[in-house]
Structures
1.
Amino acid sequence: MVNDLKTYFQTEDGVVKAVDGITFTLAKGETLGIVGESGSGKSVTNLSIMRLIPEPPGKIVNGDIRFDGIDVRALSIDDVRRIRGKRMAMIFQDPMTSLNPFLKISTQLMEVTELHLGHTKEQARRHAIKMLETVGIPDAKNRIDGYPHEFSGGMRQRVMIAMALSCDPELLIADEPTTALDVTIQAQILELIKDLKARMGTSVILITHDLGVVAGMTNKIIVMYAGKVFEQAPTRELFATPANPYTKGLLKSVPDPAHEEGTELYQIPGLPPDVAHLPPGCPFSPRCERAENVCHREFPPFVQINENHWSLCHFAKEVYAESMRERTAPNVTEAQIELNPLA
Amino acid sequence: MNENGNTLISLQNLQVHYDLGGGTLIDRITGGSRVRRVVKAVDGVNLDIKRGETLGLVGESGCGKSTLGKAILRLTEPTGGQVFYGGKDLAHASSSEMREQRKNLQMIFQDPYASLNPRMTVGQIIAEPIRTFNLSNGGNIEAKVQDLMETVGLNRRFTKRYPHEFSGGQRQRIGIARALAVDPKFIVADEPISALDVSIQAQIMNLMERLQREKNLTYLFISHDLRAIRHVADRVAVMYLGKIVELGEAKTVYAEPLMPYTKALISAVPIPDPEIEAKRERIILKGDVPSPINPPSGCHFNTRCPYAIAECRQIDPSLVEIKPKHYAACIRISPERPHIDENAAAGLGVVGEGTPEIKKGS
């Protein structure tokens, strides 16, 4: 679906390669997770798919984006508008700022179906109420005439989801949909997305920095760093046997329930990279524990590990073999974890 | 006041109430609120913080955890109760006394972008508390600042730089260096890692743990991130709408949570392991945290609690030691019957302690 996408930004500091070659396909009903730290290019990837990159300074300089056979890059702005919001929709991170504070919820929700499905005011209103009920807003009939400030963060995120799903989109892009929310509300929202996906067969791209969120929600995962795909694999395989030092570092730096008392948490040294000034060689090499001379000199190859498992690393095969060995090592606490993973 | 040698800070019935007005004759005539509206951000908290420990404080946004942290340092004025530190009641200390105490009590803030003055160099920012309290002892302030920067893992040559030249994680290190400048005994860390990238969060947590060992610091670590709290905290206090509802050793609270709220919170945390996630059963709570303006009567959690019975709306549960060193506030459990699901299955109603709500409103 997306083939070798590259989106660059022209800045005073020179060209920033925000997304520099990403390829993936997403089947109907599948969920793809895109994981990365700030500046890794995960949001830009999806803004590119939605053709929401401001031009200038940004530009999609290369790649093929196909959505159900349609060449998205070749579409005119009018044609894009016909698809966006209807066949592909997006949920943004911040439910506080992505609704218009001056308009009633009803106005904002009805606009979508009036525009895309040609609903009359009355039809649109009925549909909007139905959508609010679907996403679990109590008393939707009355709440629909409220303003965004009258809703809590979790409720606003539900309104956003209702809006995104109004036209039964085939693709839903959720950019950090729960980052601004508390865990109990996060659990509600994730459960809702899962449930809607099961009922409507929507394909989902879930962007997040939280490995916990993607673990339970996705079929496959792309790990991004400095605009590059560092690793790409089916979810279980990625967690069980990562083949990239960055992925391994990320997985290890999350506080682990099986972690021994009093031991230090694993930390990836150094800082996330400045995408405008990437080091030569592998962009992760300054922070990588196993970096050798070649890593500082040459850009690493994208190595195929298994059918759907790729890793950008000079030592991908070695890292993978290591993970395999660690995997087969006896894990005494596993039974215990399953009962209560946080204990 | 049950302060013993082991307790560094003891909170006694600490309250922070914000009066929003309403309920007066004029309000009734002018169409204002008919009842007096009070936000009970912190509502009678009793808590001992032990010397050298990290006490984790968790809860959803709006539950009052930041206000509690600020009230201890008097950055927010408590409206009732006491804060004992070294035998003195800080809540009623004069401002000059309080100022003196700030040498011992410091804070690290959530937002590393907003908590550093953008027009001061990093050197000035870290030196400010040293100058304020005259702690240089005639020595070289510059050298002390550089040592502090090194302690928190920053290059000592960067004293002339401004905050905007640093990343979020580095700024948080500057905030930590500033807090350490006065050699404090106690630090309130209010969501110190929430604004940071995952790989940087681990760095800051490790730094804080290292500093604690080296300088024998005591932390109140406030966070909504239960995984982080599990990692750094020795004991955990769970807060809900102004009250502590569960308190205990971190290990036991996470392994065997007693309160239905704590159970739900822990079950909501996503685990970075797809195998576990596939098998897990979640307790999904209904709805949001209710408004802290005139919160639900009785147990504040009753509106979302799957185990709530009629009495939960009438009785205000007390924080009771259910198991050794493990406290919970729920009338459906008791030291004899600590398992709420068993009690509910057996059809037992009230088994625990509480005080009946006499009348709403203060």
2.
Amino acid sequence: MTKKNGANILLECLIKEGVDTVFGFPGGAVLPIYDALYDSPLKHILVRHEQGAVHMADGYARALGKPGVVIVTSGPGATNTVTGIATAYMDSIPMVVITGQVPTALIGNDAFQEADIVGITRPCTKHNYLVKDLKDLPRIIKESFYIATTGRPGPVLVDIPKDVLTGTMNELKYPDKITIESYQPNYKGHPGQIKKALDLILSAKRPVVYAGGGVVLSNAAHELTAFAEKLGIPTTTTLMGLGAFPGTHELFMGMLGMHGTFCANMAVTNTDCLIAIGARFDDRVTGKIDEFAPYAKIIHIDIDPTSISKNVSVDVPIVGDVKDVLKEMVKALPQAKALKEHKKGLSEWLGQINEWKQTHALSYKQEPNGKIKPQFVIEKLYELTKGNAIITTEVGQNQMWAAQFFKYDKPRTFLTSGGLGTMGFGFPAAIGAQIAFPDSTVAVIAGDGSLQMNIQELATAVQYKLPVKVVILNNMVLGMVRQWQELFFDKRYSHTCISVAPDFVKLADAYGAVGLRAKKPSEVEGVLKEGLSVKDRPVLMDFRIDQFEGVYPMVPAGQPLNKMLLV
Amino acid sequence: MRHTISVLVTNEFGVLSRISGLFSGRGFNIESLSVAETLDPHVSRMTIVTSGDDKVLEQITKQLNKLINVIKVYDFTGEEHIERELALIKVNLTADSRAEILSIVDIFRAKVVDVSPRTYTIEITGDEEKIRAITDLFRPFGIKEIVRTGRIAMARSPKQK
């Protein structure tokens, strides 16, 4: 019998977990893995910076609903993954990150390329491991995928010393199933609580559904829509929840929070029954916490007990999987006739909602001969793709405009770093999504600032012939920070001007990508059309937009949601 | 309000830092912490003394439970339980003070565990009050050093009728 080494065992374990694609970058400590990859059926995407690998795996996971897998070397390779891991952790994205480590005998000796990555990532992973013995490796890999994908998902890091990778074993015994005594996520909602919640909902006069990323993670978009439709409840989502409820649905009010719609924020402020589903009352959502939903009884459905009553005290908590709980709730609804009666009672509230929607719709003004408005670019992109695209974003104004002006009808079509707000996320995430869905249109709505944080991945996209569309809303400033300086710092634009930037068209050319530019509104459609038609390589579309365009409405930090700056 | 929490964890390296990291990362207090193996060598028990209002304690308990290595969390607050701590106290000694120190040791049912020409080292177990009381009494003689274990706690068994 031929013996297998740790690296071969590792790859076999990954394949048994259903992994077909990994994102990574080689180095000394992981040479055994890269040697094994040489004849492995696994597809390896060679990135240009380890942070890019993690964001790609993240975008892949968000788009596909399968865990993303990353392989990097020890020391700097491992530390470069930290921002990506923290990003995935904040947004509960399933991911397994394999890091090489110096040989066991050298750990703690300040060896070349040694970093205590398990120590460093302890607070930003769901769990992490240092594999000290090859015989533990299969169990640890099994546990990693189990932990990453169950309960509230999240990233898991596995640190493997080089001698474990080169050590040998006779055969691989991979466990089929695993249970961890100290980790038993609860999926079933408590029936008593579900009943209490339904009673509350049915007696409410002004109910609102507030849905978050948990609905997407739990694949419960269908159940959410059924629930809201059957009860006739107007629905808003968080940034992370966009796509969990159809963006074109008549009950949809748009996003809530700091840059939410007037309608959503007013509805949440005036509701008497707020149904929070897979959301966690983030400060960007609630504004001033004491004045958030002041008249509401709050129902909170979440798989993570720590989310409940963390920021806002809740009247009816339901710990469980959103999909499961919503199914149970829909099942327990009264007969159609009674529901019809109930819906009638909401007509006044829906009238009010529609009035808010109409009087204060999201808006902007595009002068035909003026500067290009970023919202116009996004609306054109929506029009040309008919909404049939996966959109990722960078972080800042571009992200908020993408959330406001593109309509997401399906879950997993809007990928954004909501929790950590990581600039540099969007472009590699788009590459990951394009790898998951080679035939879909994948576009990143980027700012000129964020894009430059991981622009090196252009080479990766060119290498794998990925037709990612990079829509640069180029205002030559760090727009969101500039907007805050304008509003709250006396227009003292300290270090937000980044007009010294590469010529993105030439840059695209230098990398072997396609570069296009629009300077006038009349050129926008042509550039987008041309960009969308490219099928074999990435496209940078440089839209020179109005530098002083802001994101509105805006709830200043620390203010209640109904105190919006409208402009 | 102060709480004594008992946390059963899997006995693996790195678990202590997961727990302490959780407390520091989320701004929770640790007043004392003691750890040792249980009857099952794969399981350790940590006894943590912490403080905070009900909301904070709810978060502490939930966040601890969320850690993969945590098996069980138990808050003794409001329960009948025994708390103990052990302290070693090194007290200065003079010809005049010897008798008085020994009588305090006797009253508190403490023990002298080491003697040198200039010091007594005294071992005492008890709850926090008791240790504070004896420390206060020794202070006038001069305490050279004090080492405390941190609190441990155990629920009382239900009384038989």
